Amino acid sequence: MSDATAETAGRFAEGPLARWGVLALISLAIAGCYYEYDAIAPIAGLLHTQRGFSQSQIGFLNAVFSLPNTVMVLLGGILIDRFGPARIAAWTATICLGGAALTAVGSPYAVMVIGRMIFGIAEETLFIALLAGVAQWFSGQRAALAMALFFSCARIGSYAADTSPDWAHAVYRHGWQSPLWLATALTVVSFVAAHGYRLLDRTARKTGRLPPVAPAKRFHWSDLLSFDLSFWYILGLNVLFAAVFFPFRSTFAIEYFQDAKGLTLQQAGLANSWVFMAAIFATPVFGYLADRFGRRSFMLVIGALLMPMVFLILGTTDWSLWISTALMGISFSVVPAVIWPATAMLVEPSRLGTAFGFTDMLLNFCMAMSNIAAGSIADRAHAGPAHPGGYTAMLWYFGILSSLAFVSVLFLWRRESGRHGHGLETVHLQQLALSDAASGESPSADPCR
Length: 449
Known about the structure:
By secondary structure, the protein is mainly alpha-helical. About 80% of the residues lie in helices and about 0% in strands. It has a single domain, classed as MFS general substrate transporter like domains (Growth Hormone, Chain: A, Up-down Bundle), CATH 1.20.1250. α14 (about 295-315) runs antiparallel to α15.
């Protein structure tokens, strides 16, 4: 790093907008990686027709993304507590770029699988590192709003991937491989942003704006048993919700819309993108409401309830896709906006990386198993353009899982509304809101507190 670059970074890290600049870089980093993750669904039909992939093979491309993280992401969380989120984010963004490039090479099939696996190992730890970075830079100040904005930018990456058959139609005319190279190019943007975040974070710690990374306590498996019962309830919601939403939306939805609803690839991609279009704008709103009014577990109840309604509508009615995708979009806006900052309220700060890593470990295991199970169910029912009714069994599968997620959050709401609550239903930032309204972001205020 040159002296001029260090001096510029130092001046910015001292400024009142430092934390928002860091949030912008963190959000850009996750947006590029989310595009790469969602790059499989738009080319699922091309992989099927041009390369002869089965539904199970296509599902496995996203399952292998998650499978290694049934172990590795917990290690990633421990490393984040040990070395700090910024350093781990830079390391994992570099690995993500390598995995994306291998996926784009993509032939033979084993190379594509290895690329997805490498990308998946790094991306999930990158996600946790960036999320922990937001929690550090916005500790005590608008954490839910900041995380919601972070997720909104992630949704922009997914929305761009879903709509890429339209805005990048010239790329898709060249077959299945060109769209994957486009995704790799956007992963380069993520790589640059992650290293920019590390630079600002390191400068802020040198100048005292952030405390130095403290050595983490030695990890013991028994530490996991010390988490409160509310943590396990919110973990159940997080894991089951992800096991429904991501396999359906990121793997099977576009092909389902084509085969069962008669849409073209471009129309199906657009319909699938409505979910993220809603989330892009609605997620920050729900994050702000959580900061302003509390009622976090109740908001999660509402968000979880909408998901089984989506599959009931898809499986039993001919209603417009606007209805089901709008409901899914609202659900996917409420749950991520609230669930991660709420999780942070249930564990001590020194164990935040471990808690996030453990959550993501189980989340990835269930996502992987759900991708495989849904693909197998669709294959056994001979789902496809010649037999669109074969998708019904898969819809029932997702409906049952989402109903279990709803039951888990009901238990959370009941506990947090009683004497064992951790403040999820209360407001913590009233004094901050009054202070901000009176003075705004004062240059003399510590931007990282």
